[in-house]
Write a structure and sequence with these properties.
Blueprint lengths: L7 E8 L2 H11 L3 E7 L7 E6 L8 E6 L12 E9 L4 H10 L6 E5 L2 E7 L5 E6 L21 E9 L3 H9 L3 E6 L2 E5 L8 E6 L13 E8 L2 H14 L7 E2 L3 E7 L5 E9 L24 H7 L6
Parallel strand pairs: 1-4, 5-8, 9-12, 13-16
Antiparallel strand pairs: 1-13, 2-3, 3-4, 5-9, 6-7, 7-8, 10-11, 11-12, 14-15, 15-16
Length: about 300
């Protein structure tokens, strides 16, 4: 069993309109935009990062907004719901706020005894807010939401799979422990994690496979402290029979990727070097930052990319 993984690092999804996406996460949910850069493989598309003050691993939601992308089709083989942690006693505040903002899909549910407020993002993506006792991570208050209501980071993610068996064994190998199971949902928790410690697996044997598009989670990333621990995880996964990519420099972390038995794309990302490597913490996310290989495209991109404000 691995002991290097410490919970989630980030969740990356697909979107349509970049400005709408930016407004939803910074104005409606009150997160901080900690980086605006571009997709490494499609540099004419943004890669936007939202999180707490410094983009702490376990708090960062990221998006690829493709202007002409079709809406995704929900199904199995994907992350169905991204769960955020909020302070105890703040669920009522968030329901009222989201209602006033015209957010769709609002509803209260209970999963494995945990009460949640579920809602949709602009592209139909599904989120839940849950009051997490003992979560002392600081929330970002710079966008006007008070500390006693501010989102702390991820609680975790919920995956939909046709068969949970092999993925459950993988999660246990990665250091998660199964704690509950009811109505086809299994909950796994990372002991001693970074706060973004939950993975839930919902089994839907007869459901169709998901189709990737706007509103779909592209991949979920798990956090390791540094490159040495990442290499140890990579070797262990290769030895177990998984096909794992070489280490890829993503400027703000190093990444490896592999496909799980249930079809979900997993990433293992380092906590180093972080989002302050190329701009001051006080000004994170304000300027367009480009990977070195795309720096020559700046004049084109500054004209082509949709302004995020306005």
């Amino acid at each position: 069993m691995l002991n290097e993984i410490k919970g989630l690092h980030h969740v990356t999804s697909m979107a349509g309109d970049a400005r709408q996406n930016n407004h939803f996460f910074t104005k409606t949910l009150g997160l901080r935009r900690v980086k605006q850069t571009v997709n490494f493989d499609a540099p004419d598309v943004y890669h936007l990062y939202y999180g707490d003050e410094v983009g702490t691993p376990g708090s960062v939601m990221t998006y690829f907004p493709f202007p002409d992308i079709a809406r995704g089709r929900p199904g199995t083989g994907e992350v169905g719901t991204t769960l955020f942690s909020i302070p105890e006693g703040s669920l009522g505040f968030w329901r009222e706020r989201l209602e006033k903002e015209g957010v769709t899909g609002l509803g209260e549910t209970t999963v494995l005894g945990e009460k949640r407020l579920t809602f949709n993002g602009p592209d139909g993506d599904v989120f839940s807010l849950t009051e997490a006792a003992g979560d002392h991570r600081p929330g970002w208050t710079g966008n006007g939401i008070a500390e006693d209501h501010a989102i702390r980071g991820f609680r975790g993610v919920s995956m939909r799979l046709r068969d949970a068996g092999a993925t459950s064994e993988l999660l246990k190998y990665m250091g998660y422990e199964q704690t509950d199971m009811k109505d086809g949902v299994r909950r796994f928790i990372m002991p001693g994690g970074n706060g973004a410690d939950f993975i839930e697996v919902e089994t839907l044997p007869g459901a169709d496979f998901a189709r990737l598009g706007a509103g779909s989670v592209h991949h979920v990333a798990f956090a390791v402290e540094d490159r040495a621990k990442q290499l140890a995880v990579r070797k262990a996964l290769l030895d177990t029979g998984y096909q794992v990519t070489p280490v890829i420099d993503r400027d703000y972390f190093w990444a490896i990727y592999f496909r799980t038995p249930g079809g979900v794309l997993f990433e293992i990302a380092t906590n180093e070097p972080g989002f302050a490597r190329d701009e001051d913490t006080a000004h994170l996310g304000e300027a367009l930052k480009l990977p070195a290989q795309h720096a020559h495209l700046r004049p084109f991109l500054e004209k082509h990319l949709q302004p995020l404000e306005g």
